[in-house]
Write the structure tokens for this entry.
Amino acid sequence: GNSVTQMEGPVTLSEEAFLTINCTYTATGYPSLFWYVQYPGEGLQLLLKATKADDKGSNKGFEATYRKETTSFHLEKGSVQVSDSAVYFCALRGNTGFQKLVFGTGTRLLVSP
Amino acid sequence: DSGVTQTPKHLITATGQRVTLRCSPRSGDLSVYWYQQSLDQGLQFLIQYYNGEERAKGNILERFSAQQFPDLHSELNLSSLELGDSALYFCASSEIQTGTRSNYGYTFGSGTRLTVV
């Protein structure tokens, strides 16, 4: 079945550092890929998405590129802020039938001033 | 405000009891999904409804059940509660559920935190 693997956390960075959170997936066909963010005490919010190979999703300075050849969708940001501290979830959704979102285990990001 | 409303926000109950969690989807969304988030098992898909009908089942225990009503709100019923059922329960909604339009993500509610004591 479909699955998502994320790097273990927590990821601890200083403000203005470069961020990469790795995400790889296993799926048949051409799934859509998503990054969700969960701030403390809140639900998950869609951060960005990509629906086909080589698409780049971007939002709030975050970017991720759909790499079919490496089955990856790594999240990057050039300069993190303290307010980016949250848990980040990579997810995929298959493109046939009644497909549900499949989530990775989440990666906690801690940014210090 | 995401548009998905979950009530109650917090719930504390004793083992063996039964509780009902409620979810109102975002206006216009026909699909509702329930997820359980616990520390040791991450985000687990429980069940999906589309326009009143069950469409997919995940790791949902037999002690748990759900339904979606004609007005599209959904309820998740948890019975014979155990300590291990303590978790955050999220509801999410989306416009459509067929895979041909899988570029739609979900909109999540803020969750119900269930504590079983």
User: Anything to note?
Assistant: Chain B touches chain A through 26 residues (CB under 8 Å). The CA atoms of residues 41 and 51 of chain B lie 29 Å apart.
